[in-house]
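About this split. The held-out portion is used to measure sequence recovery: a designer receives only the structure tokens and must propose an amino acid at every position. Recovery is the fraction of positions where the proposal matches the reference. Here is one held-out target exactly as it appears in the evaluation file.
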């Protein structure tokens, strides 16, 4: 009986440590900053787990005459309903987005590892 309790205790401790590591990895902010551009898209997507997903057009790679330039599109997710509502007001406008980058996102958080936490319109 004592061996069974030891095995049960070790198994329980492994589960607790595993949950703690998982919680840390999915909530750790790897980087944070701002990005500026034109907000081109914001939508609520998903079959079961609906998340806000957006695109920011940050412009081309530079001003090179007589060349075609690819736009840099940055994909992001939004956790907060209030931030999503504010973003919807500024769709099609030039904005500065404040974001946090996570190591990994859970499926119910969003499709990307970049989460917008604030928005500021550029005059």
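Reference sequence for scoring:
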């Amino acid at each position: 009986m004592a061996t069974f309790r030891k095995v049960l205790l070790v198994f329980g401790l492994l589960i607790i440590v595993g949950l703690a590591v998982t919680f840390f990895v999915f909530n750790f902010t790897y980087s944070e900053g701002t990005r500026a551009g034109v907000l081109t898209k914001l939508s609520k997507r998903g079959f079961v787990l609906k998340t806000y997903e957006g695109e920011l057009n940050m412009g081309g790679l530079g001003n090179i005459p007589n060349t075609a330039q690819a736009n840099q599109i940055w994909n992001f997710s939004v956790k907060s309903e209030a931030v999503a509502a504010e973003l919807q007001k500024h769709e099609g406008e030039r904005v500065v987005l404040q974001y946090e980058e996570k190591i990994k996102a859970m499926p119910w958080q969003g499709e990307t590892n970049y989460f917008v936490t604030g928005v500021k319109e550029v005059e």
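Annotator remark: Strands lie at 29-45, 51-57, 73-78, 94-102, 114-121.
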